[in-house]
Amino acid sequence: MSLLPTPEVTLSDTGVADALERAVGIINPLLDVLWGTDPLGLKRRDADSDDGPLDKVADGLSWALNAADVPGTRGWDDLDTDARIRWWVRRVGALNTVVVASPGVFGALARGLPIQDLLGFVNQAMVLCAVARELGVTNLDTQVRMLAEVLCERDLSDAERGEHPQSEPIPRTPVGVAKALWQLAGLFDAIGDELAKRPHPSRPLRYLAMLPGIGGAAAFLGERRALERAAEDACRWLEDHAGGR
Prior knowledge:
Layout: H1 13-36, H2 53-67, H3 74-77, H4 81-101, H5 115-134, H6 140-152, H7 174-189, H8 203-208, H9 215-241
C-alpha cells in the first residue's frame, strides 16, 4: 500500500515484455550456476576404499549430492524429463518457498505488505524457466511469453519487442548469486500490479495464513501448491506453443 495517493497506471504489454526479458536474462545464467557449479569435483567423484579421512568425507558429500539427484550428478543422469521437472518444483521450489512463506509468520499483518507476492513471483518465474529448459525450450521469446501468460495473464503475441538484452555470466560465488537475485527482485518489483496475478494459494489456506504463528506453515503449504499449479500450467502452455522451441 502506497503512503501517498498515486495515479493508476496500466503497464503496456511492451513494458511487461521488457521486464520479463531482462528477468529471463538473469534467471537462465542463475540456473547455469546451479547446474554447473562443482568447485570440489564432488558431483561425479568415484569413491575409493583406500582413501584417507578427508577423502572419505568428500565421498560422503558426493554420495549425498547423488542421492539428492542434484543436476550434474550421475543420479541426475538417471532421471527422465518428468522426474527432472518434479525435482525443480519439489526441491528447489520448496526450498525457495520457505523464504516466500516467511512473512506469513506475522499473520494478517503480512497481507498488507507486497513482499510475499514479489518473492512468490521470483520463485515461480525461476522454476518455470527451469521447467522450460528441461522440456528443451531455451528460446528467450518463448520463455518470456510463457511467463507472461502463466504468471501475468498476458498474451504477448502481438507486443512490440525491442532488441533482446544480453545475458551476462554470473560469478559462481554466493555474492554473485545474491546480487543476481537482488537484481531479479528489483526488475519484478517494477511491474507492480502484475505480481498479484501469479497463481496464489487456495482461499482456505490464505485465511489460515492470516493467523499469527500458524500463518507461516499455512503460507508454505499454499505457496507450494500454487507453484505446482504454475508448473502444470507452464507445461501445458509449452506443449501448445513451443513446437519450435
